Amino acid sequence: MGDLVSPLALTDKIYYRGVSELSSRDSDLAAVVSRWGDPPFWCHAPGFSGIVIAILSQQVSLESAHTAFAKLETVVGAIHPEKFLYLDDSTLRGIGFSRQKMSYVRGIAHKIMTGAFDLKGLESMPDDQARKRLMEVRGIGAWTADTYLLFALRRSDAWPSGDLALAKAIQELRELPTVPSSETVDQIAETWRPWRAVAARILWHHYLNERGRASSA
Predict the structure, then answer these.
(1) Tell me, what's the pLDDT at 62?
(2) What is the residue-wise DSSP string for 9-56?
(3) Treating both helix axes as pointing N-terminal to C-terminal, what angle do 164-174 and 182-190 enclose, rounded to 10 degrees?
(4) Residue 9's beta-bridge partner residues?
(5) Helix, strand or coil, per DSSP, at residue 5
(6) Given pLDDT bands bounded at 50, 70 and 90, which one contains residue 216?
(7) Are 81 and 48 in contact (CB under 8 A)?
(8) Architecture of domain 12-42+158-216
(9) pLDDT digits (tens, 9 = 90+) for 157-199
(10) Is 36 exposed, middle or buried (0-12, 13-18, 19+ CB in 10 A)?
(11) Which CATH number does 48-152 carry?
(12) Predicted pLDDT at 215
């Protein structure tokens, strides 16, 4: 792991090494790669825009979150805190923000602009420390913090506990009678360290392809 950049951050080369290693260790993950090919290295830009897409993704479909994010980009161009704060409620509702998500993102934008929240500083923090700092901010719970670590900071072992698509993918691949609990899913994921973020992408790859939704990612 000596060629990792930043604290456990993935590059293309390291990511596909993780896919190969997991495929050699886990027959279920290997079956996904064999059937559907290597999973895409899905990522978001770090910083404010990465936080915005993470919050938009809370409790909605992937398609809904991506549609809203694309509308926001159409309205403001590059997504920066100061630009976001200029948008009124009506504009944000039209984009796809709920009242609660408007409040969350406005609060985060204000914290960034006043220096109360240093997003850039997260990039050099260990996973646990970065996760803790994220969760101190209103609107960022465990799942949102974990997905920011996974997609934006590209941490190799980030794991979004409680993600329903991951649980359903595991149910299907392991032929379980019911969707496993978050606790069971997390226990299974322990066997994929230090590549849990890679395993998550393989599982999402299965979930989306099985439902004909690969193009939505």
Answers:
(1) 87
(2) B--HHHHHHHHHHHHHH-HHHHHHHHHH-SPP-----SSHHHHHHHHH
(3) 70
(4) 5, 155
(5) strand
(6) low
(7) yes
(8) Orthogonal Bundle (1.10)
(9) 999 999 999 999 999 999 999 999 999 999 999 999 999 999 9
(10) middle
(11) 1.10.340.30
(12) 64
Residue whose entry in the numeric block shows the structure tokens 């984009």: 95
Give the start-to-end residue ranges of the domains of the chain. Answer: 12-42+158-216, 48-152
48-152 matches 12-42+158-216 in CATH topology: no
Q: How far apart are CA 43 and CA 146, in angstroms?
A: 13
Any bridge partners for residue 155, and if so which? 9
pLDDT digits (tens, 9 = 90+) for 176-187: 999 999 999 999
Sequence-ordered alpha helix ranges (H) in 115-192: 127-135, 142-147, 164-174, 182-190
Q: What share of the chain is helix, strand, coil (3-state, %, to 5)?
A: 65, 0, 35
Structure-token pair, residue 198: 């890679």
Alpha-carbon torsion (187, 191, 196, 202), positive or negative: negative
CA dihedral sign, ordered 191, 193, 199, 200: positive
Token representation of residue 152: 């934006």
Angle at 215 (CA atoms; ends 210, 217), nearest 5 degrees: 90
> Nearest to residue 49, comparing CAs of 72, 32, 31?
72
